[in-house]
Design brief:
Blueprint (H helix, E strand, L loop, with lengths): L6 H4 L5 H6 L1 H25 L17 H10 L5 H12 L5
Helix pairs in contact: 4-5
Length: 96
């Protein structure tokens, strides 16, 4: 014969994950759910197109000595005579 289950004897076990562990089981379940939601939100934020796109800074190109000389002449750091002398020196081919 089948015996009816008495709820008085099953009270400590209740619904398995929560009754067996008491409040700890419920807290573990809740913590897992919260972590899952946080992970989902972060995954969606990574793939979203609404985030601003940051471009990489432009790499400064190296200036040639003549470019530097021309810039210094244009800004008034050197005189026209100094510019011509330095330009002539820079344009000379090295003698080997």
């Amino acid at each position: 014969m089948i015996q009816p289950v008495m709820h008085g004897h099953m009270a400590p076990f209740g619904f398995f994950p929560f009754g067996l562990l008491g409040g700890l089981g419920g807290l573990l379940f809740l913590a897992g759910f919260v972590l899952l939601v946080v992970w989902f939100i972060r995954a969606m934020a990574r793939s979203s197109s609404w985030r601003p796109v940051y471009s990489t800074p432009a790499v400064a190109t190296s200036e040639s000595p003549l470019d530097i000389l021309s810039r210094r002449f244009a800004s008034g750091e050197i005189t026209a005579e100094d510019f011509q002398k330095a330009r002539d020196l820079l344009r000379e081919t090295p003698k080997s």
